[in-house]
Amino acid sequence: MNTERILKIILGPHVTEKAAIVGESSNQYVFRVAPDASKPEIKQAVEHLFEVEVDGVRVSNVKGKTKRTGARLGRRKNWKKAYVRVKAGQSIELMSGE
Fold first, then answer.
1. Cα 68 to chain center, whole Å?
2. How many distinct helices (H) and strands (E) make up the chain?
3. What's the CATH architecture for 3-86?
4. Taking the alpha carbons of 95, 96, 97, 98 in that order, is the dihedral positive or negative?
5. Considering only Cβ atoms within 10 Å of each terminal Cβ, which end of the chain, N or C, has fewer?
């Protein structure tokens, strides 16, 4: 896989309370990923970008919510998130505190 595709797979970290709990308890990190990304592509992208060994990848397709603005109905986009488990003793630094 070329470097350009690797950089387009991971869209960013998904920071929520649930993601923090999963991260602390089982050494997992949650990322927003491209909707057409596969598990092997996600694994390769995380290993390349963060220089860690990935133990497993689980993905979830999140359906966009229907929202109402006045008399109009709109819909948010569907998106995909990936739960990435890294090997024991390794970690990913998502934010720098500087």
1. 28
2. 3, 6
3. 2-Layer Sandwich (3.30)
4. negative
5. C
Which helix (H) or strand (E) segment holds residue 67: the answer is strand 66-69
Res. 94 pLDDT band, cuts 50 70 90: confident
Nearest 10 degrees: Cα torsion 38, 29, 31, 98: -140
Q: Name residue 8's beta-bridge partners.
A: none
- Measured between alpha carbons, how far is 80 from 78 in angstroms, rounded to an integer? 7
Enter the tokens of residue 28: 């997992």
Angle at Cα 20 formed by Cα 83 and Cα 28, nearest 5°?
35
Rounded to two decimals, the pTM is 0.87
Q: Find, among 13, 8, 14, the residue nearest to 45 by Cα.
A: 8
Examine the pLDDT at 41 and tell me if it is beyond 50.
yes
Residue spans of the domains in the chain: they are: 3-86
The Cα–Cα gap between 31 and 41 comes to 13
